[in-house]
Every structure is written in structure tokens, then in C-alpha cells.
Amino acid sequence: MDNTNLPSITIAPKNLTPIAVIKNLGAFIKIKEFDKIGHLTIPICNKHAVLSGIDKEIDPFTKEEIAKYTAVHLKNLSFEEIEIAFQNERFGLYPKKTIHYNFFSIDYFVEIITKYKVWKQSQMTIHNIPLNQSLLPLDSNSTTEENKKQIRREFITMIFNELKQTKKDYINDAHSLYEDFIQLDLINATKQEKNAVYNIMLRDTIKETNEQLNKPIKSTLRKQLNLFLESLDSKDKNILVINKCKAYLVCKSIASHQTVEDILKKLHLEK
User: Fold this and answer.
1) What is the extent of the structural domain holding 6?
2) Domain total for the chain?
3) What is the pTM of this model?
């Protein structure tokens, strides 16, 4: 396989624990700041493949797909986080291991990254880490206004298409669009309606957490989930549940439009 050493791209200490990395996300360079990312992503995958007993080399087509997925859908993660995502898989920190069948596929890559996102969100809640890392790109010197608009168009289009295809009520990542939708009067829910949505999401979150607790899981994760359940009993509203509510209201607004062009026009993002 190719060299598995990850090029030096960090600006924060490399010996940080996963939780320390999450607490210091602002200290790491985001993937969106790199023009080319394949040569940085693939070594992480190769390293994981070797350590996980995959003896088949990742084929060029899969490498291309991984690079494309990372560039388009993981803009606001850092390469350190991708490293942690696969380290967590090897260390058994997720509820269930993903079977690789001795083949490092794009599906395998996406599933582990998805598990990391869920794990990251739960850890930020458990450890009271502020959710100030937006899933949409922030302002940067290397990102022009038109590039930012294009990224937002792609993100909203992805949400729109996924809602249509999956028939889901909401997509978690959509919560980062909430303030824009409120500002442009694309969400007009009353306080009573918002409270009703919160109560529904709270019940769903409690149910989902209990379902995880009923599965065979490691004692460390069980302890974390129990602590998370206790936090849901607080009088203060939970930020994780709040973000689910925001995602639901945003997606409800998006789904009410016939075409993605209709919603982009209202957001002043038309080409």
C-alpha cells in the first residue's frame, strides 16, 4: 500500500486526546482550506486498512470517490477528525463495528465518518462543549463570496434532494441554516409550535438513547449514554434536541417548495 504517514497539517499538538481535539476544533485547519485533499485523506485510509487487517490495496476509483466525498461533504471537518473517526472504529468506541469484508470501499468510508459525526455530537453534549462549529463554511481569506454562495447552493440542494429521496422528516445537518431561514421569514413557527416540536424531538431522542442502551455496548459508552439521559431531564432545553428542532423546521420549509430553485431564489442564492 501507499505510504500511510499523514503529512504534517496540524497547527495544534498531535498528542491531544479525541475529546481534547473536539474541545479545540478551532485550532485545526478545516478541509475546505485545502485545494487538493486526496493526498491527505488517502494516507489515513491506508493506515486504517493496514491496522484493521485489510490486505487489499484501495483501488484508484475508490480513492477518487473518497477524495470527492471528502471535498464536497466534509468541508468543515479537519483531517485530525478523520483520523479520530477511524481510530474510534479500531478502538471499538462506536456501538457497532462496520464489517469491511477485506475491502475498503466508499460505503465503508462513509459509514465510519457518519458514526463519527454521531459520536462527536454526543460527546459535545455530554462534555458541554459549545456547538459553535457550523456545518456550513465560515468566512475565510481563501473563500470568495461567490465560492461561499456556491457551497451554500450545493448544501441546500443536497438537503432538498435527500428529503425528496428518503422521505425523511428532517436532515440533522440542516440546523445550520436556521438563522438564515428565520431572517428571511422562511420559518414562521409560533412559540407554542416550537415548544411542541421540542417535546416531540425530546421524546424521540430519549427513545433513541434507550434503544442504544438496550444493545450490547461497552461500559464506557453505556455510562456516557446514561449521563446524556440525565442531562435530558434538566429544566434547561438540551442543545442537541434544539438543533434537531431547528433541522426539522428548516427541512419542513425546504420540502414545501416544488423545486430547489424556488428556495434558492428566496435565499438570494440564485445564479
Assistant:
1) 1-133
2) 2
3) 0.51
